[in-house]
Write a structure and sequence with these properties.
single chain, 174 residues, mainly beta, 4-stranded antiparallel sheet, 11 strands, 5% helix
Amino acid sequence: TDNTVDGPQTCTIQTGTVTGDPVYTSLSQSTSVTVNDQDSAAISFSAPAVATIDEPGGTTTSTTFNVTLSSSPSSVVTIAITSTDTTECTISPTSVMLDGTDWNIGESVTINSVTDNIADSSQTCTLEIGTVSGSDTDYTALSNNGTSTSVTVANVDVAGINFGTPVDSTIDEP
């Protein structure tokens, strides 16, 4: 396993002799074998560490998820990540860079809830792959491919009407 998307590879196996006997010297042979590539390019998002976060003012207002690759890229791969509803959640950083040293370890992304001041019950916030850039075409072909993860943002806003204290609490009839 080389963990690299590199297509079928041909290997030559050479046999030789380890003796000085001239009868065996002419028996050296070689053969070729094709090794089929089992690696593929894919981008993965782990499930968020916490499935439900609260709007600001609640107890848990952020969580994290991890972005990894399925194989070692031939060069640095930059993956943009987008929130489908920035009125409910934002992410930081908005892109990650993975290369041959950290492709399987990945990078952590933080999801933060947003104050929307709307009593709108819990909302789903989805994070998706945006543009993938770099010179590894196996990975850049995965731009905007629909890979996603999501978190529920629990509403903490309460609907109501607030009345201020009147300046003059007594009025006369007309």
